[in-house]
Design goal:
The complex is a heterodimer of chains A (114) and B (111). With 114 residues, chain A is mainly β. In chain A, 0% of the residues lie in helices and 54% in strands. In chain A, the strands form three sheets. In chain A, strands 2, 5, 6, 10, 11 and 12 form a six-stranded mixed β-sheet that branches. In chain A, a hairpin with a 5-residue loop joins strand 7 (56-58) and strand 8 (64-68). Chain B has 111 residues and is an all-beta fold. In chain B, strands 2, 4, 5, 6, 9, 10 and 11 form a seven-stranded mixed β-sheet that branches. Chain B has a four-stranded antiparallel β-sheet with strand order 1-3-8-7, with no helix packed on it. Classes of the chains: A mainly beta (114), B mainly beta (111).
């Protein structure tokens, strides 16, 4: 079965530290990949997405992610985090041509200390 | 704002009862899907509707059912509620581009 796994359940950083959140997916075919963010009390928001083309994808709020097909990975990065980045981050995948079912990882809670 | 609205935002039910959750999707989005997000977990796909027909279902029992209406709004119905059904239920709509737009969810507590 297709699955998405996120390596860290809870990450604590100080402001200005660099961030990298790991994400791996299990499907070997064509996938579309996403990172969503959920701020406390708010709805899931799309940070960035990869469908095809340049494997380095830039999203909103200074986030980027790199698709590495050989490693089945789609890690999220940000060079310098801010307190306002405190949120839960979800990696997700859609298997191409399988009805748009979005498979989520279990999430990584990021806490940024001011 | 995503243009996806859900109601109610919070509700409490007891075991064995039935619940209906509602979703109004963004204009022009003909596909709606529902997800269950238990505490500390990522959202789990329940099912998806395209033009009023279910066209995908996750690993949920038949007591989870849904409807999509001609205006593309949707309902999630859960019968014979169990304690483990306590969760945040998310509705998402898409215009078919692969990007989903989520509502803020309905938080269901089953006592």
């Amino acid at each position: 079965a297709q699955s998405v796994s996120q390596h860290n359940h809870h990450v604590i950083l100080s402001e200005a530290a660099s961030l990298e959140l790991g994400c791996n997916y299990s499907y070997g075919g064509t996938v579309n990949l996403f990172w969503y963010v959920q701020y406390p009390g708010q709805h899931l928001q799309l940070l960035l997405k990869y469908f095809s083309g340049d494997p380095l994808v830039k999203g909103i709020k200074g986030f980027e992610a790199e698709f590495i097909k050989s490693k089945f990975s789609f890690n999220l990065r940000k060079p310098s985090v801010q307190w306002s980045d405190t949120a839960e981050y979800f990696c997700a995948a859609v298997v191409y041509n399988q009805g748009g079912k979005l498979i989520f990882g279990q999430g990584t809670e990021l806490s940024v200390k001011p | 704002e995503t243009g996806v609205t859900q109601s109610p935002t919070h509700l409490i039910k007891t075991r064995g009862q039935q619940v209906t959750l509602r979703c109004s999707s963004q204009s022009g989005h003909n596909t709606v899907s529902w997800y269950q997000q238990a505490l500390g977990q990522g959202p789990q796909f329940i099912f998806q509707y395209y033009r009023e027909e279910e066209n995908g279902r996750g690993n949920f029992p038949p007591r989870f059912s849904g409807l999509q209406f001609p205006n593309y709004s949707s309902e999630l119905n859960v019968n014979a509620l169990e304690l483990d059904d306590s969760a945040l239920y998310l509705c998402a709509s898409t215009p078919g581009t692969g990007e989903l737009f989520f509502g803020e969810g309905s938080r269901l507590t089953v006592l």
